[in-house]
TrEMBL record, chains A, B:
This is UspA. GO terms for molecular function: AMP binding. InterPro entries: At3g01520-like_plant (IPR044187), Rossmann-like_a/b/a_fold (IPR014729), Universal_stress_UspA (IPR006015), UspA (IPR006016). Residues 25-163 form the UspA domain. PANTHER family: ADENINE NUCLEOTIDE ALPHA HYDROLASES-LIKE SUPERFAMILY PROTEIN. Signal peptide: none annotated.
Amino acid sequence: MEGRGATRIMIGVNESTIRGYPHASISSRGAFEWVLNKIVRSNTSGFDLLFLHVQVPDEDGFDDMDSIYASPEDFKSIKHRDKLRGLHLLEYFVNRCHEVGVACQAWIKKGDPKEVICHEVKRVQPDLLVLGCRGLGPFQRVFVGTVSEFCQKHAECPVVTIKRSAEETPQDPVDD
Amino acid sequence: MEGRGATRIMIGVNESTIRGYPHASISSRGAFEWVLNKIVRSNTSGFDLLFLHVQVPDEDGFDDMDSIYASPEDFKSIKHRDKLRGLHLLEYFVNRCHEVGVACQAWIKKGDPKEVICHEVKRVQPDLLVLGCRGLGPFQRVFVGTVSEFCQKHAECPVVTIKRSAEETPQDPVDD
């Protein structure tokens, strides 16, 4: 059953809301470890992991409140800093893959995560999309919205959602 | 990464609505082949496949219109026949697993498929539940209801739904 090309698994990853860059979120790490432990197992040559990080454009500019913009160069430095953040995040996953010996690719896109993920699935055509999720109850979900629910419905490939385990859930379950 | 026990994948299977027993439905076969080709691959010792077939009690008794019931024995023979049907279905999947060399178990339950599947997930605790689905549009779905949507929400393990490919869809997409 080998030889038909590796199974390509896309994993959507994002940063922690509680520990700040460059830490991967609890649910991203959970999704990744689930793929390694339950799917890839010892068959490292049979899989190719594709990490997609979607950066959300900073709507209210809160992060940049203390910055002073005096020249076009100042804006370039922001873009550079955002890029660095995303790169640190991806570095974590690429390093782990390298340790384990599984092939991987990782890239960053900007936009609305749910739409960008579905667009990238269409473009890249993975065999499986794996997303971590916080496992929020229906009440919390109304206010937060979930990327995974949208992708379950709209992504053009099979999708599996890995919920955080109860012992890994922070005090405020909206954090990750 | 091996040695922690095989990854246990539960696959919900049902019979074809167009070809009759003992033929597996298009979507069941699709889900099974996806698991073999994309997940198990050459690592047959790393996985244990668990086939669950839920038999729906015949609500309107249409299948039994031509039967005459004269003694308790007549009812026993119906139950026996139903059981045989389910066994033929499971035999298909167990035979394929045997050919490929992957460990498996298969069993039959009676009831509402979506509820029985979620109950069996709770009892058996697989690492992943795989369901085939017909890939109906929203209009068709309203009338048919989908087991996979229910299980995505309520099953206590990760769930992946494998849609039939377009070329395998029968003329009436509600058939399977």
